[in-house]
Design brief:
Strand content: 15-25%
Number of helices: 11
Protein name: NADPH2:quinone reductase
Radius of gyration: 20 Å
Largest sheet: 7 strands, mixed
GO molecular function, one term: zinc ion binding
Structural class: alpha/beta
Organism: Roseateles oligotrophus
Pfam family, one: ADH_zinc_N
CATH class of the largest domain: Alpha Beta
Number of strands: 15
Helix content: 25-40%
CATH superfamily of the largest domain: Medium-chain alcohol dehydrogenases, catalytic domain
Keywords: Oxidoreductase
Shape: globular
CATH topology of the largest domain: Quinone Oxidoreductase, Chain A, domain 1
């Protein structure tokens, strides 16, 4: 089998494409012949040794993929050979085959092909858990989505609109703003050339957004939080800008606002029943056309370094998917 190995966690330059023996599934595992895998921001962090998960070297990166069940280990339940599945396993996806615990696999609905499925679980589960579970988003509320053109951002636009919210999509270019409008955003802010707080005052008539969805972090946090509405909820989703910011905690007091952490992976481990119900709801939303993954590019598995370079350029709209032929 083909697999990208991380033998030295210094970034994409530390990856090597190797031929490996096809693994045999252990008890409770299934082996998946991978058809497509997607890039998520943690994939970049993990090969730079900057993520909370630090697998022993060497390892195959790639948290999210879709494919066909090829073999079952002893006691593996819920699947048969030939089933189409998607999975979010943390590592192992940038390869032609992977063995994973059966409980990490999601049966694919007929409405979803492998490339969409590979770009589905992480972004939509994160965004639904954030907006609907943590923030308890209500119809008619206003949501500000930072980094709105990225993978989780485009998913958040669709989920917030499906929930009946008004969406303000904030991103770093006019091209990205235009794409966010196509995805259903009601208004956009190009924070690359305008003042975020002033734009929010205008768009909300001085009231501020009820919910702020932030996968970016960095220098956007304080101006965004200062703009939040009374009883607003600020969702800490990630730090794509690279900097973990400090925030004057008195701002939460002055606005009667909540600062809410969003860690979907831990939620899935601690509350598996609730997570399974959520994933089923998202699969149904996809089947009826409420949500649809946004694919920036589909590239061959062999072009993983180029895919990481595109991700690092900050030009990606939606998600990059690798195809394994």
């Amino acid at each position: 089998m083909k697999a990208w190995l991380c033998e030295n966690p210094i970034g994409p330059e530390g990856l090597t494409l190797r031929e490996q023996l096809i693994p045999e599934p252990q008890a409770g595992e299934i082996r998946v012949a991978i058809k497509a895998a997607s890039l998520n921001f943690p994939d970049l962090l993990i090969i730079q040794n900057k993520y909370q998960l630090k697998p022993p070297l060497p390892f195959v990166p790639g948290a999210e993929f879709a494919g066909v069940v090829e073999a079952l280990g002893e006691g593996a339940e819920g699947f048969k050979v030939g089933d189409a599945v998607a999975a979010f396993s943390g590592t192992g996806g940038f390869a032609s085959h992977a063995c994973i615990p059966a409980g990490l696999a999601l049966p694919l609905p007929q409405s979803m092909g492998f490339e969409e499925a590979a770009a589905f679980i992480c972004t939509y589960a994160t965004s639904y858990h954030a907006l609907m579970d943590r923030a308890a988003l209500r119809p008619g509320e206003t949501v500000l989505i930072l980094g709105a053109a990225g993978g989780v951002g485009t998913a958040a636009i669709q989920i917030a609109k499906a929930a009946g919210a008004r969406v303000i999509a904030a991103t770093s270019s006019d091209e990205k703003c235009a794409r966010c409008l196509e995805l259903g955003a009601d208004a956009t802010i190009n924070y690359g050339k305008t003042h975020l707080r002033e734009e929010l005052k205008t768009l909300t008539e001085g009231r501020g957004p009820d919910v702020i969805y932030d996968p970016v972090g960095g220098d956007l946090v304080e101006p965004a939080f200062r703009s939040i509405a009374w009883r607003g909820r600020y969702l800490v989703v990630g730090f794509a800008q690279g900097q973990i910011p400090s925030l004057p905690i008195n701002l939460a007091l002055l606005k009667g606002a909540s600062l809410l952490g969003v860690f979907w992976g831990e939620f899935a481990k601690r509350e598996p029943k609730a997570n399974a119900e959520m994933l089923g709801r998202l699969a149904h939303w996809h089947a009826i056309g409420k949500i649809k993954p946004v694919l920036d590019a589909v590239m061959p598995l062999e072009q993983l370094p180029q895919a990481f370079a595109r991700m690092a350029s900050r030009q990606v709209i939606g998600k990059i998917v690798l195809r394994c032929d």
